[in-house]
Amino acid sequence: MHFTSLMRELKYEHNASLISLIVILLISGCLENVPEIIIDPTPTEEEDWRAFSVVAPVDTGINPYHIHFQTNDTLPSWFLDDFGVTLVCDLSDEGSWEERVEADRESCWNKITYADIVYFEGTRIIGAMGEEGWSETPILDDPNDGHGTAVTGAVLNGNPDAVIFFLEGFDGVRRAAEHPMVDVITTSFGPIASVPVSGIEDDTEYAVNVMGKLHTGACDNTASTCIQDSTGGPPWSIGISGFQEDGDRGKVMHCSGTAPDIVADWTQYLPDHDSIDGYHDTSGTSFATPRTAGILSFVIQELRNQTLDFGSGARNGSLVFGENFSVTNYDIRRSMEKASYFPSFSEYNPGENEGPCQTGTPISPIAPYTQTGWGVVDPTVSQSMIDDLNGLSPLSDKSIDCETYMITIMEMREAYW
Fold it and tell me: What's the CA gap between 131 and 221, in Å, rounded?
C-alpha cells in the first residue's frame, strides 16, 4: 500500500545531559531521593503532520507564486516520496511576478518534463503535465489565460488546507485518476452549450467507479441541460451549476446548466495568474465546481482526523478508512445531497441585472429542486455532513417529491451515458 510509510515507528532524540544526570545519581546511590523526571519527546517537524486530503484540479496552469497558495505548512519528505515527486522547485520570493518567473527558469521551469511530478516549496501544490506541449512553460499558467489559477484558488476557498495535485492540460484527467493518493478530481471545461459530444467521461468513470474517487464537473454557463454534458452529466460525476450566494439581488439562480446535481457559488474573489498578490471577482460554474471539490475534501480530511486515518485516496474502496469505520465516495455524495439546502424566496432582491445571462432568477418556493437539483452546497453544510457520516447526527432524506424528481434525472443520465 502506498501509505505504509505513514505507519512508521516514531523516533525521538533524548536529552543527553538528562540521561547523564540519571546515570550519576544511580552511581551515587541517591536515586530514591530524585524527583520524578518525565521525558516528553517532541516529534520532528517531518513526523509531526496531520490528516490530509488531495484535490486534483485539471486545467490551464497555475501561478504558485501567488500569496493565495503560500503556506508555512511544508509537505514532509516522506509525503513527497510516497507521492512520486521527482523535482522540487524552491521558487524565488523577490521581485515582480515576471522577475520571479525569469529567475527560476533555469532551476525549475526549463527542467520540467512530462515524466516529472513537481513540488513547489512553500506551498501545498504539486504539479504535473497532463499533456505534452500544452504551454511554453509547463504547469505555469498561461500569461493570456489564468483560468487554472482561479480554479485552484476556489478549491482552497472550500478547504484552505487541501493538498493540490495540479494537472496542466485537459488530458490530465487520466493521470489524476490513476494516482492512488488523489481523493477528488475537479474539472471546469467542456463543450460550449453542452453539445452532446464525447469528452472526459471514460477517465472520470475510471476515477470514480474503479479508483473510488469523487469527481466534480462543471455544467455549462448556458441554460442547456447538464444531462448530456460530458463533464458534469455522467451519473458517476457530480454536476454543478451556478448560484449567487451574495450580491445585489440576494440569493439567486444564474443562467447555467439545468438539471444539475447541486448548485454552488457563482462569483468568487480569486487570485490573479500574473501577479503576486492581485485578486479579481470572476463568475461561472468553472469556480462553483472547484469550491465544491474543496468542501468535499474538507469533509474527508476532518473525518480522517477524527478516525486517525493518515492516508489518502481510496483504500479497500473507502476514502476514509479507520478502525471499524469506513466511508466510500458514494457515502460522501449521498450525505452531500441530504445536507444541501434550498434558499428561501424571501432572500431574493430584484435589483439591477449585471449583464447577459445574469438575470438573477429567484428560487421558487414550489419544487425548488427543479432549479437547484438537490440544493445549494456551501461551507455551511460541511459540519452536518461530517456529523451525518460519523453517525453523530444522521441526516434525513429530502421530501418524496424531491427524491422522486432527482431519481428520474439520474435515470435519464444513466440511460444517456
Answer: 26
User: How confident is the model at residue 7, as a pLDDT?
Assistant: 34
Torsions phi, psi of 341, nearest 5? -135, 160
Pairwise CA distance, residues 339 & 333, whole Å: 10
Q: Is the dihedral of CA 321, 46, 4, 213 positive or negative?
A: positive
CA-to-CA distance for 295 and 291, rounded, in angstroms?
6
Q: What is the DSSP string of 60-116?
A: S-B-TTSGGGB-S-PPPHHHHHHHT--EEE----SS-HHHHHHHTTTTTGGG--TT-
Q: Which residues pair with 341 in a beta bridge?
A: 376
pLDDT band at 277 (very low <50, low <70, confident <90, very high): very high
Share of the chain above pLDDT 70, in %: 81
Task: Spell out a b/e string for 277-312, using b for 16 or more CB atoms within 10 Å of the CB, else e.
Answer: eebeebbbbbbbbbbbbbbbbbbbbbbbbbbebebb
Is residue 346 within 8 A of residue 362, CB to CB? The reply is: no
Contact yes or no for 118/86 (Cβ under 8 A): yes
**pLDDT tens digits, residue range 92-127?**
999 999 999 999 999 999 999 999 999 999 999 999
Query: Are 190 and 231 spatial neighbours (Cβ–Cβ below 8 Å)?
Result: yes
Strand partners for 130: none
Q: What gap in Å lies between CA 396 and CA 412, rounded to an integer?
A: 25
Residue-level pLDDT at 95? 96
Q: Which amino acid is at 164?
A: I
The H or E element that residue 128 is part of is strand 125-129
pTM over 0.70: yes
Summarize the confidence of residues 71-91 as an average pLDDT.
Answer: 95
Q: Tens digit of pLDDT for each residue in 26-46?
A: 334 444 444 443 334 444 444
